[in-house]
Amino acid sequence: MKTKYRRRRALAAVLAVAALAALAALIWLLVLLVRGIGSLGTPDMRTPKDVKAVVLASDWSSYFSTARTTEEQQAYLESTLDEAANLGANTVLLTGRVDDDPDQVLFRVKGKDLTVATAGAVTENDGFFSKFDPVNYLMKQARERDMQVALIATDDGGQPLAAGAALPEWLEKAAKDHKLALYGLDEASAAALDAAKAEAESQAAESGEEVEPEQPLLTYVGLTEGSEAPALLRKDGDAALLAAAWQLEEGRGMVLGELGSLLADGSDAAVALRFVSGEELPDVLAKDVPATLSIVTPATGATVYTENVYLIGTSDPAQPLTVNGQTVERTGEMGVWGILVPLNMGANDITAVQGETTVTISVTRSTYSGGGAGAARPDGSEAAAPGQKLRINTTLASLLEDYTNDDSILMTAYEGAVATVEKSVSFVRSGRRTYAYQLENGGYILAKDCELLDSSTPDAAFTGAGRTTEGNMEVFTLTGSGTPLYTHTWEGNELTLTFLSASFTGEMPADLGFGGATVTVEPTGEGGFSLHFVFNDADPLWGYHVRYTEDGTSQILLKHQPKRSDAETGPLTGVTVMLDPGHGGTDMGAVGSASEDFPQEKDLNLAEALAAKYRLEQLGATVLMTRADDTFPTLGERVEMLNDAAPDFFISVHHNSTNLDKDTDGLVGTECYWFYTEGKPLAQALVDRVTAATGREARGVFYNYFYVTRSNLCPAVLLETGFVSSPTEYQSCAGDLGLWAEGGAIAQAVLDCVPD
Fold first, then answer.
1. pLDDT band, very low/low/confident/very high, at 171 (cuts 50, 70, 90)
2. Per-residue model confidence as pLDDT tens digits over 255-290
3. CA nearest 414: which of 221, 582, 312, 548?
4. For strand 444-446 and strand 91-94, is the pairing parallel, antiparallel, or unpaired?
């Protein structure tokens, strides 16, 4: 009996222990559920392309200190996820570190062998089993919001580690214990980041000042063996490139940036999300670069006058290529190549060979002889009598300070403008004898740009003006008749229009349609009058134009400044942009091809403009095109389209080139041209955005009197995106990623120039 009793007691003890163990296991399971441990690293709740992440960097982690209560930290974690979600993110990436201190990390991990697991990183005891764990609470709250948490592998300095690099022991254990996907850079991204740092160090050594390295387009990949975590693309502050890469590469998510920076200014992330919210990207370049052997320039039979000629051609990038027996090195994936070939006087045969394919062209080198000497022939123009009137009969002409210098432009004169001649000057221009006519204000108009009128033509005379509104313009129609030439000065909020050979005897409307604006009318000593407008910062002048009507009178157009919109359709809602793809039709543009099958400058211009149109419309803009196909509007027609449409921005899209008498592959970069100073900020924004998105050299912004930039209606510029004479840069310009990066950059530059 005693033995039996002892057995019962032993059995009861075993059962009690088992019950306690089961109870402990149940409690522990409940704790785990409360703490939120789960497999959140693999995005099984959404497809890889749906992953939109923000980074919670070490400055974010520094919030977790002994100075804050558990309740405060919980509220901080919840607000973090809410802020990330408001930015459009569904995933948060932890670096795990606190203030880049290698001895201070955010995680609680198991194992006494790890000494840096919790130093200063977590605080109060919130229960019987363990202290409060911010990571577990973050994961629990993320799951409740249908969000995810993952971990970025970093070194002791907080920099992302590359695949294959040795990982800190705490990091591997933290990822395992918390069941987090572990991310690092792929090899190409790590190499690009190292190169950017080296370039910044080199620049700093030269300048003596610290230089922040440019962040290249990065790809994060899962580091855990067998990980299903999708690759993530990252390019902070560059929505154009990030969106283009994301849309053109399958199966990747994206990183919008660091949470702290995005909370300070999340506009770039918002633009990126708008860009990626559209349908599949359309094809914008109608022609592909053929991967077959050809010499695209110069054409066979060409005559050149230089010692060397630079050949540009296409090839199969997978096969070796020789030209006249010399191996040709190629860059890029399209097989476009270039080589400088010396020429003998007379005929030269140049042969390119690839495999079984041979292409030969003949180029003749000759000695240039200029035109023969002799007296300049008259061009048919004639002198005007003093006081005789003239009318501008070209779309636009230049009022020059020095009639022998086309650079000395005082004012742009538009078709229909009438002025009075003070004197006529005969001179030789481009080998022909012609006339320049000096007007009453001292400026000169060339005979080629005008017609002389009957001496009885009267001066313009106005007795007042009426105001109407067209879109965001106030239109003042002058009462009376005449289309007088005018000059202008525009500085800050003050605009003065001075009309020549004209009178104004009435009054301008009291209400100009601009808040607080005023205008005064004053006669001038040259038999004209001036209108002096004063605006204010609350409702400033954006642009102006004088339009001559078919019934023989004049209108003054004053444009209001566009503003960013908070409409759901996008921040550029209500903004109109006119894009002008350069060249077209029979005008192939710069350094083109003897074959229409090869994308020429005109094709790249149109493709880039179409990509920009798509991106601008995603931001809500109304986009007009001077051409949408392979046609050629004349320069005059393009200017007329601008004046008729009165957009808020005008961008003429081009690609650059140079003479093919040298190795042109090293001549690269982006530049932009402006004429009136109002266009200079747009030019700078375009260069900044395009070079950031493409990695091209920023060559600068420059003054020049291109036909299409000579408008005061709106900022008007001519953009040279890249050099088609460089095989390397040409391939960037002709590739899908390059075209869409450029298009998005143009849209962002416009957004940069629209005031809040």
1. confident
2. 999 999 999 999 999 999 999 998 889 999 999 999
3. 548
4. unpaired
Q: Hey, what are 388's tokens?
A: 């005789």
**Run of H or E residues at 579:** strand 576-581
What CATH code is assigned to 460-560? 2.60.40
Domain 294-365 homologous superfamily, CATH: Immunoglobulins (2.60.40.10)
Of how many residues is the chain composed?
756
The CATH classification of domain 576-752, taken from the options 3.40.630.40, 3.30.70.20, 3.40.50.12780, 2.60.120.10:
3.40.630.40
Distance separating alpha carbons of residues 461 and 479, to the nearest angstrom: 8
CB proximity list for 164: less than 8 A, separation 6 or greater? 187
Q: Phi, psi (5° rounding) for residue 729? A: -70, -30
Contacts of residue 331, Cβ cutoff 8 Å, sequence gap at least 6: 727, 728, 731
Find the mean pLDDT for residues 296-306: 93
Q: Cα–Cα distance between 529 and 486 in angstroms, integer?
A: 10
Domain locations in the chain as residue ranges: 38-275, 294-365, 377-452, 460-560, 576-752
Residue scoring higher pLDDT (190 or 115): 190
Number of C-beta neighbours around residue 562 at 10 A: 22
Q: Which two tokens stand for residue 461?
A: 């005379």
Distance CA 384, CA 398 (A): 18
**What pLDDT sits at residue 157?**
75
294-365 and 460-560: identical CATH topology: yes
Angle at 141 between CA 96 and CA 30, to 5 degrees: 100
Fold of 377-452: SH3 type barrels. (2.30.30)
Three-state DSSP class for 116? coil
CA distance 194 to 544: 50
Do the Cβ atoms of 678 and 715 come closer than 8 Å? yes
- What gap in Å lies between CA 270 and CA 619, rounded to an integer? 10
What are the Cα distances from residue 734, in Å, to 27, 604, 745? 63, 7, 16
Query: What residues contact 372, with CB distance under 8 A and at least 6 apart?
Result: none
- List Cβ neighbours of 375 (8 Å cut-off, separation of 6 or more): none
The answer to whether 514 touches 472, Cβ cutoff 8 Å, is no
Stronger pLDDT, 207 or 700, i.e. the higher one: 700
Distance CA 177, CA 35 (A): 13
Residue 503's alpha-carbon distances to 438, 545, 552, 554, in angstroms, are 20, 19, 15, 13
Nearest by Cα to 717 from 696, 702, 729: 702
pLDDT exceeds 90 at position 480:
yes
Written in H, E and C, the secondary structure of 42-58 is CCCCCCHHHCEEEEECH
Residue-wise burial string across 226-257, b where 16 or more C-beta atoms lie within 10 A, e elsewhere: eeebbbbbbbbebbbbbbbbbbeeeebbbbbb
Q: List beta partners, residue 530.
A: 498, 522
Please give the model's pTM, rounded to 2 decimal places: 0.91
Given the DSSP bridges, would you call strands 670-674 and 716-723 parallel, antiparallel or unpaired? antiparallel
The pairing of beta strand 231-234 with beta strand 252-258? parallel
202 Cβ contact partners less than 8 Å away, ≥ 6 residues apart: none
- Region 191-206: mean pLDDT is 90
In sequence order, what are the residues at sequence separation of 6 or more whose Cβ sits closer than 8 angstroms to the Cβ of residue 144? none
Closest CA to 642 of 482, 445, 412: 412
Distance CA 577, CA 36 (A): 51
Look at the block and give the residue holding tokens 């493709």. 607
Query: ∠ CA(625), CA(594), CA(311), 5° rounding?
Result: 110
